TrEMBL record:
<keyword id="KW-0813">Transport</keyword>
<dbReference type="InterPro" id="IPR036771">
    <property type="entry name" value="ATPsynth_dsu/esu_N"/>
</dbReference>
<keyword id="KW-0472">Membrane</keyword>
<comment type="similarity">
    <text>Belongs to the ATPase epsilon chain family.</text>
</comment>
<dbReference type="Pfam" id="PF02823">
    <property type="entry name" value="ATP-synt_DE_N"/>
</dbReference>
<dbReference type="InterPro" id="IPR020546">
    <property type="entry name" value="ATP_synth_F1_dsu/esu_N"/>
</dbReference>
<keyword id="KW-0066">ATP synthesis</keyword>
<keyword id="KW-0139">CF(1)</keyword>
<dbReference type="InterPro" id="IPR001469">
    <property type="entry name" value="ATP_synth_F1_dsu/esu"/>
</dbReference>
<comment type="function">
    <text>Produces ATP from ADP in the presence of a proton gradient across the membrane.</text>
</comment>
<keyword id="KW-0406">Ion transport</keyword>
<feature type="domain" description="ATP synthase F1 complex delta/epsilon subunit N-terminal">
    <location>
        <begin position="1"/>
        <end position="53"/>
    </location>
</feature>
<protein>
    <submittedName>
        <fullName>F0F1 ATP synthase subunit epsilon</fullName>
    </submittedName>
</protein>
């Protein structure tokens, strides 16, 4: 599935991921391939991307969570996510 993370200043990440873990008001929630359409607000925390590989252009924006798995994170203060038809946009600050 394709995920795009945007801030007012730049594109943090755009690419294929296996899944994404997001900080929601009622706790973290996981979006995986073929997830039902959703629009949700996000609170401060980490957006975690589960990927096979990452483009060098976006690697500088993300923190690798551990050496064993391909999990990268990006800290946010707040935001909103829209996901539908295996495409998601995360607008955050």
């Amino acid at each position: 599935m394709n995920i795009k993370i945007l801030t007012p200043e730049y594109v943090v990440f755009e690419g294929e991921v296996s899944s994404v873990l997001l900080p929601g008001k009622n706790g973290e929630f996981h979006i995986m391939k073929n997830h039902a359409g959703i629009v949700s607000s996000l609170i401060g925390g980490k957006v975690k991307l589960f990927v096979n590989s990452i483009d060098e252009a976006y690697a500088k924006n993300l923190t690798k969570e551990n050496e064993k798995d391909s999990v990268f994170s990006y800290p946010i203060k707040s935001g909103v996510v829209e996901f539908n038809h295996n495409k998601g946009i995360i607008l955050c600050e």
